[in-house]
Amino acid sequence: xxxxxxxxxxxxxxxxxxxxxxxxxxxxxxxxxxxxxxxxxxxxxxxxxxxxxxxxxxxxxxxxxxxxxxxxxxxxxxxxxxxxxxxxxxxxxxxxxxxxxxxxxxxxxxxxxxxxxxxxxxxxxxxxxxxxxxxxxxxxxxxxxxxxxxx
Length: 151
Description:
The chain is an alpha+beta fold. Helix content is about 25%, strand content about 45%. It has helices at about 15-20, 25-30, 120-145, and strands spanning about 1-10, 35-40, 50-55, 60-70, 75-85, 85-95, 100-110. The chain is globular and about 45 Å long. The model has no long low-confidence stretch (mean pLDDT about 90).
C-alpha cells in the first residue's frame, strides 16, 4: 500500500481555495499529469458526485472514475476510485491559519498484480508530483488571474 501526504498554505480565503480545489474539473489547470476531468453526474458537488478522469502516469495514459465519499464545505473532501487500474482514496483537508488557508492532501493507493512490484517507484513519483503541483497551485491562486466559482 502507498500512503503519501503533503500540505501547503495558500494566501487566499478558505472559501476560494475550497471552491477551486473541490471542483475536480479544475485539476488539469494545476496538476501536470491530469489531462482531462469530466463531471458525470448532474447533481451539484457533494457526496455521490462522480467524475471520470484521464491521467498520464509513469508514461502511461490511464482513465478511471471516482466519487466523492465525504464533502464538508471548507473542511474536507474525500473521493475514491470506482473504476480504474488500482484502488485509490484521496482527501483534501482545509484549515484557516494566520497566513492563509492550509490544504493537506492525503492519497492512499492499493496497487495489485504487477503494479505491486513498482510500489516504491509509484510512491516516489506521486510524492514528487504532489509537491510540485501544490507549489503550482499556490502560485496560481495567489498570483494569477484565476476564476474561482464559489458554490
